[in-house]
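Following up on my earlier thread - several people asked me to post the actual chain instead of describing it. Fair enough. Here it is, all 390 residues.
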Amino acid sequence: MTTDHAWITTTVTADLLRGALDLEPTEHGVLPHRLPARARRQIPDGQLAMAEAQPSGVRLVFRTRATAVELDTLPTKLVYVGAPPRPDGVYELVVDGRPAGRASVLGGNAMTIDMATGAASTRPGAVGTLRFDGLSEGVKDVEIWLPHNETTELVALRTDAPVEPAPDRGRKVWLHHGSSISHGSDAAGPTSTWPALAASLAGVELINLGLSGSALLDPFTARAMRDTAADLISVKIGINLVNTDAMRSRAFGPAVHGFLDTVREGHPTTPLLVVSPLLCPIHEDTPGPSAPDLSDLGAGRLRFLAAGDPAERASGKLTLRVIRDELARIVEQRVAEDPNLHYLDGLDLYGEADFAELPLPDQLHPDAATHRRIGERFAELAFTTEGAFA
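Reply from S.P.:
Thanks for posting it. Predicted structure:
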């Protein structure tokens, strides 16, 4: 901590955060969560527990005259056995709606994961400090977007002038659920995930329930969405059901109906958009599961392979093409009684021509340029006058 300012310490409370559904007190401070406590008690695996605690779309938002801001955090960084170190998570500063800086916090806890065995262990580390200074004088609205891919305990917020919660700007709240692609895998930063980009272009407030590896039609996620205030809702369904080989076609249709029924219990007339999978050639016609190819991991290159057999489609194994057809059928069936339900084909966001120009580097996840394309297209297709969210 520096001493060249007359610092004011402000307790981080829920009214200074957007994009989080819960705030857990910890030994060091508070930990934002993207699933509520009741849902977390039902989480069956460490992957989802890690994903929901990574604050994709979560940001500190306040109004202040401060020209300098410091934030103490305790990040948990991921280390993969046999792979080069991952880049530190990025915090992005936005002032009055305009990008104003980027920084990282060094140190912190380290979670080591062995992708070959699934074993994981955590080594505790030290709190670090993030600083943005040289901010303009006068009253302004400040946002600090937390790293989308790094669990972040908030320890202390310091400024050289008082802060207060930013006023409600009357923007609609968009609640979105999806897979690691929605979570932001391989995006350039927290404001550059495709949902964050689309929200910025559309002028809406984002709550991002993109959960890496865990868009699996879990009932507790549906209940969390049911109980969260929102003006616009979207659900992107498909890739995780295939690459985890989570269910067969017999279970898929009823599970989609059940998920949508639960969301509708809390949002009976809210515009609800069902989005089918983006193009992923390895799983278009080949079922899951996906398997990591670790042969080039030491050079920092990870690729995924489809470990299923196309012949298994006959026994009900899911592929992306099957899921798109079934989602379109389900929405068409339901829309007669639910005129605010809509469907968006994921191939309109990222299809064959896009793959030829911007291939998926690891065969599953889009890179930063592709996140931008998907975000721009979603904003155009969903939020314009002809879109579900118009």
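The chain has a mean pLDDT of 95. That should answer part of your original question.
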